[in-house]
């Protein structure tokens, strides 16, 4: 039987290549209860997807989560958000009752109900190393249910289109009849989404998270027996179950109800909540010593994976310190031995803890609103900065960057730093086979690819950026589908300002492309001025040729 070019040759070699990037090699990791999957070894972002606007067609029919009174247009006296989104990439924009932006443009907002909005968000995730999105799902039997059902379908579509993973994260806060209804919702509605190739799996099981068990307040009133029943029920459905739990889960004190130890230990993964608990780098250091390190030991003793929160900080409370606060958390969580990281949150403009693109300065916020922009501490900060910071945190988690307490990401890179400079640019190549030419690698379609002549290494592919640019990272990928099984390609990266004399940007190394990781790798390079970027391939354990579907270059 002919072996497809997508089929990995040699399972032993595959295991070896996977092991080279496994958690055992990542900094700070002492153990891993589970092998890398869609949450272990990955960056997961909490995704609310809960913003609606009047006139967007959403069943909820109002300004959902943009204002206190959803029936009235958002305004300075009808506001619940703490930061304003960067509106430049949305095709549908909804006018508000705020004054114009400082730039003079109308103050508009997006709707999560528009598919283009969700696609834009998942494109940002793809561009910035956000592997998996945890779609928040509150009580679906409330008046919000129909809109939330529709959002699940929109998230599924966006994840499939952009090579990301997603899973359902039930937030049970205030859900009075939770115990029977969460089971019904899963079997009748949400379990259908596990048929998607984009639905997250860990240890071969569909991932579900339950946030809210064990919290010591009136909005989470269930006893331990009821909660344990729900956890075990989902595990009986074949799910890998994550628990979003109080930070004092080990001790059963403070924010945690006592007597919940069996519930916490029943989860496959523990994810303690940190929003509201920390606001400075010093707070993170205290948590590292007193909670995170003991948490890791407790999880190791019970075969549980550990996925602590990392948050950028509330813009309105001036917590961010132009990235230093968030980076200290990345450093602490990774050196403590976290198996994965949960970013709180992707699009939480209500708490001001969003990493999604945000107003850079007063020209992008409504005049007189009192809302702060990312430059609130006097440091110019581009709107995509916290996405880029997350990308570097993910690289450090995966061992692609050394463990460092020094933030490597500048808030003030050139304005094209979040733009793929290679997209649609002219390419050249040493060779190609059949119709798999080099232009396929920069066409923006992850399903098309370049492939060199077979059995004739070395081979190369090159892109002309058009102008000399200070390049900092290269993103390479294969089609993000399971048919392209894991393989390691040995390659080097060089650059040239004139197309004649090339210098090495990244020396020869083996890079593992695996569908479980989106079949994509990111290579950091020195900030080198270059116009021509060349990738030279000398080996491929999956097919005897150089292969590339994604060739992206960033300033």
Describe this structure in words.
The protein has 555 residues and is α/β, with parallel strands linked by helices. It has helices spanning 11-20, 115-127, 145-161, 178-188, 224-236, 261-266, 281-302, 324-336, 385-397, and strands at residues 43-47, 94-95, 108-109, 132-137, 165-171, 201-202, 205-211, 240-245, 269-272, 305-306, 309-310, 341-343, 427-429, 450-451, 459-477, 487-496, 503-513, 520-540, 547-548, 550-554. 52% of the residues are buried. Mean pLDDT is 90; it is low at 1-30.
Q: Key terms for this structure?
A:
555 residues; alpha/beta; ten-stranded mixed sheet; 9 helices; globular
* Helix count from the secondary structure assignment: 9
Task: Return the string of H and E elements.
Answer: HEEEHEHEHEEHEHEHEEHEHEEEEEEEE
Could you give a short account of the major beta sheet?
10 strands, mixed
Total beta-strand segments: 20
Low-confidence stretches: 1-30
Radius of gyration: 23 Å
Question: What's the N-to-C terminus distance?
Answer: 45 Å
User: Given the helix and strand composition, which structural class is it?
Assistant: alpha/beta
Share of residues in helices: 10-25%
Silhouette: globular
Average pLDDT reading: 90
Strand content: 15-25%
Summarize it.
The chain has 555 residues and is an alpha/beta fold. Helix content is 21%, strand content 22%.
Topology, pairings included?
Elements: H1 11-20, E1 43-47, E2 94-95, E3 108-109, H2 115-127, E4 132-137, H3 145-161, E5 165-171, H4 178-188, E6 201-202, E7 205-211, H5 224-236, E8 240-245, H6 261-266, E9 269-272, H7 281-302, E10 305-306, E11 309-310, H8 324-336, E12 341-343, H9 385-397, E13 427-429, E14 450-451, E15 459-477, E16 487-496, E17 503-513, E18 520-540, E19 547-548, E20 550-554
Parallel strand pairs: 1-4, 1-12, 4-5, 5-7, 7-8, 8-9, 9-10, 11-12
Antiparallel strand pairs: 2-3, 6-7, 13-15, 14-19, 15-18, 15-20, 16-17, 16-18
